[in-house]
Design a protein that fits this description.
By secondary structure, the protein is an all-alpha fold. The chain has one domain. About 90% of the residues lie in helices and about 0% in strands. The chain has 5 helices and no strands. The N and C termini lie far apart (about 105 Å).
């Protein structure tokens, strides 16, 4: 294989990701004789080592505390929002809904009482009147409607 083909396999070779033993053997054979590809492999290995080292240092000394602080801050904000919503429900919404429900019940009760009172008054008036008096007051057609319930 030539250098151009070998260079495509250097990173997978370094990461032990080459699946075919023939390709691995060809890369190793080429590296024994090619100083340019050997130097490139060494450079890739140095970069890989440096990156792994830097990530650990940054994560341990710089990033980790700031990430933890950010997570704690976000959690505190969520807790405060949840508590604010609960206070709103407890102090304002639930009493308002209870008041509205009470008002609705009172209005319905009053209307039901009015309906019962009106029908009772109508029945009382009609029961005290003679048929002739009702005829004079409403006329025959109106009397028939009242008696039939329409």
């Amino acid at each position: 294989m030539n250098c151009k083909k070998i260079k495509r396999f250097l990173t997978p070779y370094l990461d032990n990701e080459l699946k075919e033993p023939d390709i691995t053997a060809a890369v190793e054979k080429h590296l024994e004789t090619c100083k340019s590809c050997s130097n490139e492999l060494k450079a890739l290995k140095s970069i890989k080592d440096l990156v792994h080292k830097k990530e650990k240092i940054k994560a341990d000394k710089i990033l980790l505390p700031s990430i933890i602080d950010k997570i704690n801050e976000d959690e505190q904000i969520k807790i405060e929002k949840r508590e604010k919503l609960l206070r709103l429900l407890r102090n304002e919404l639930i009493p308002s809904l209870a008041t509205a429900a009470a008002v609705i019940l009172v209005v319905i009760s009053i209307n039901l009482l009015k309906m019962d009172s009106i029908s009772s008054i109508d029945e009382l008036i009609l029961s005290e009147m003679s048929v002739n008096e009702v005829n004079e007051l409403f006329g025959n057609t109106e009397l028939e409607k009242l008696l039939s319930g329409d």
